[in-house]
């Protein structure tokens, strides 16, 4: 179970811009698959793109490994399309990440006034 929790907010218009132009996500974040010792997909390591301040404002840090989003395990590549469709209209994204070897929950509210 994750020990620490962090909350952040993403403006719904920004989210919509990323969906309208998915290539623009590379300005926010770069991702690389992380494999377990037995070669199975374990999650994705995230690093800031050129807009690193937005990356960190969402609560991510360079080297975080995202293992789950909204209850969907990222160890199953078939969840990618489901996740993409789910997040397009979600008001919240709950990430389970590994940071420095410790599990952590990161919640990003989309729209609204409070993180």
Automatic annotation (TrEMBL):
InterPro entries: PDZ_sf
Official protein name in the record: General secretion pathway protein C
Protein species of origin: Aequoribacter fuscus
